[in-house]
Amino acid sequence: MVTPLSILLVEDDAEIGEFISLYLANHDARTTVVPNGAEMDAAFKSGSFDLLILDLNLPGEDGLSICRRVRSERPIPIIILTSKGEDIDKILGLEMGADDYIVKPFNSRELLARIRAVLRRSDNHHAPDDGALRQAYLFSGWRVDILSRQVVAPCGMRVAMTGAEFDLLHALCENPNRVLTREQLINMTHGPTSGPFERSIDVLISRLRQKIEADAKKPLLIQTVRSEGYIFSAQVTRA
């Protein structure tokens, strides 16, 4: 028997909340709908969730602030669902830690596809193929474990990664010392259903540098190749 997904939706429009909840219920997902950040916090205290869907225009604490706060507290995948469709809004959402960004009005099938894509990239729902078992990448004292999707720093501490951040690091480890264009990285990390745009990769690169570089402003591992893309300048081995 398949265990239903548990989704937390922060949406103050009751009609949209009910529509999403009913639609996802037909696709093995149980949705808890709350109208603001305070009730979201209460929901997190009373239960666990596989995914957070977050509106930006909310009463009280705004969605971007909520996204940044949740990302700093827990590794749950986050999808922003909002009427704000400008590129700058998407960039800000990704910078705050969202895994994907959907603009209203939206197609319900697209929403479901995006949910499934984000969950495939997340720790708890990623199912590696047999060839990935016991496989890890090692570079500069770091360990990237493909099966558990864990990243361990040279000091031995685990570094939390979102699904998109891990997939980007995985792609870089598989292609060391090779210039990769933004389009190539988009295909490796987002896939065709995630509505990719080039700046999303720049945001992910920035987030990843903050986590693995000694000085994110002077990166030695993930270097920019002007007018071309990025190169992972590390000696990578497999374990």
TrEMBL record:
The record's keywords, sorted A to Z, are: DNA-binding, Phosphoprotein, Transcription, Transcription regulation, Two-component regulatory system
Q: Where is the OmpR/PhoB-type domain?
A: 134-234
- InterPro entries given in the database record: CheY-like_superfamily (IPR011006), OmpR/PhoB-type_DNA-bd (IPR001867), Sig_transdc_resp-reg_C-effctor (IPR016032), Sig_transdc_resp-reg_receiver (IPR001789), WalR-like (IPR039420), WH-like_DNA-bd_sf (IPR036388)
Transcription regulation as a keyword of this entry, yes or no, is yes
Question: Matching PROSITE patterns, A to Z?
Answer: OMPR_PHOB, RESPONSE_REGULATORY
Specify the Response regulatory domain's residue ranges.
6-119
Which residue numbers delimit the DNA-binding region? Answer: 134-234
Identify this protein by name: Response regulator transcription factor
Q: Which organism is it from?
A: Methylocystis borbori
